[in-house]
């Protein structure tokens, strides 16, 4: 099956700093990637949809200036959490949409802790 | 807007027994896909099974099968011969023809398997 990687798997940063999370589709080209946020024992909440070469589409209530998404190539999307605060601590998951398919392949997630 | 509802926050089953997880959804679309995802403690999302709405036959994948009732908008997952490795959080998810690839997830069901 298609594989999606995320880096880093865990990151701890200080309040006020920025952190970048990378999402890569390793064996397929993902024209569309998705970023989710998940709190413990809760469902995945879609943050934004990222299309290669264009601006991301953010869900209602998600601050686009705080969560910067770049999809520069068909295999790489990045999420940058700017001026992170403790309330941004969460589990972030990306997924890539397989070509000509509605299936999404998920990365292993990144646990962000802001101190 | 489409909604997906999982009414069982937690379920448990004895090893080797059968368990059914419930899912209902609401949509006005005629063309859509339904999925069950498994999220084990590692938090990696794994696709368990998918069902195309236009197909009347219920999907099966080894020990996993679904009961798709289109008129009732119900999509339950049956796990037969449960194994310890089936313990995870299970999410029902929906993609409609006009959703532009956006997955709508249910709240999730935590499945515990007792030896």
Overview of this structure, please?
The complex is a heterodimer of chains A (115) and B (115). In chain A, the strands form 2 sheets. In chain A, strands 2, 4, 5, 6, 9, 10 and 11 form a 7-stranded mixed beta sheet that branches. Chain A has a 4-stranded antiparallel beta sheet with strand order 1-3-8-7, with no helix packed on it. Chain A is globular. Chain A has strands at 4-7, 10-13, 19-25, 32-38, 44-51, 57-58, 67-73, 76-81, 90-97, 104-106, 110-114. The mean pLDDT of chain A is 93. With 115 residues, chain A is mostly beta strands. Chain B has 115 residues and is an all-beta fold. Chain B has no helices and 12 strands. In chain B, strand 7 and strand 8 (64-69) form a beta hairpin. The N and C termini of chain B lie far apart (41 Å). The A-B interface holds A 1, 32, 34, 38, 41-44, 46, 49, 91, 93, 95, 97, 102-106, 108-109 and B 33, 35, 37, 42-47, 50, 89, 91, 95, 100-103, 105-108, 110.
Ordered list of secondary-structure elements with their pairings:
The complex is a heterodimer of chains A (115) and B (115).
Chain A: E1 4-7, E2 10-13, E3 19-25, E4 32-38, E5 44-51, E6 57-58, E7 67-73, E8 76-81, E9 90-97, E10 104-106, E11 110-114
Parallel strand pairs in A: 2-11
Antiparallel strand pairs in A: 1-3, 3-8, 4-5, 4-9, 5-6, 7-8, 9-10, 9-11
Chain B: E1 3-5, E2 10-14, E3 19-21, E4 24-26, E5 32-39, E6 46-52, E7 60-61, E8 64-69, E9 74-79, E10 88-96, E11 104-105, E12 109-114
Parallel strand pairs in B: 2-12
Antiparallel strand pairs in B: 1-4, 3-9, 5-6, 5-10, 7-8, 8-9, 10-11, 10-12
């Amino acid at each position: 099956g298609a594989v999606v990687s995320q880096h880093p798997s865990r990151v701890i940063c200080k309040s006020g700093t920025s952190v970048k999370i990378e999402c890569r589709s390793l064996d397929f080209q993902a024209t569309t990637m998705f970023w989710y946020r998940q709190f413990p024992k809760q469902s995945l909440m879609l943050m934004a949809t990222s299309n290669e070469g264009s601006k991301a589409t953010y869900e209602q209530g998600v601050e686009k200036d705080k969560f910067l998404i770049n999809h520069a190539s068909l295999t790489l999307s990045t999420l940058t959490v700017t001026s992170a605060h403790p309330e941004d601590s969460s589990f972030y998951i990306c997924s890539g949409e397989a070509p000509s398919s509605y299936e999404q392949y998920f990365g292993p997630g990144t646990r962000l802790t802001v101190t | 807007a489409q909604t997906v509802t999982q009414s069982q926050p937690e379920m448990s089953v004895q090893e080797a027994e059968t368990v059914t997880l419930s899912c209902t959804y609401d949509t006005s679309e005629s063309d859509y896909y339904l999925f069950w995802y498994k999220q084990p403690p590692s938090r990696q999302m794994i696709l368990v099974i998918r069902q195309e709405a236009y197909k009347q036959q219920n999907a099966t994948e080894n020990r996993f099968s679904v009961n798709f009732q289109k008129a009732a908008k119900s999509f339950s997952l049956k796990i037969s011969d449960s194994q310890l490795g089936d313990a995870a959080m299970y999410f029902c998810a929906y993609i409609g023809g006009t959703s532009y690839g956006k997955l709508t997830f249910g709240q999730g069901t935590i499945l515990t398997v007792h030896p």
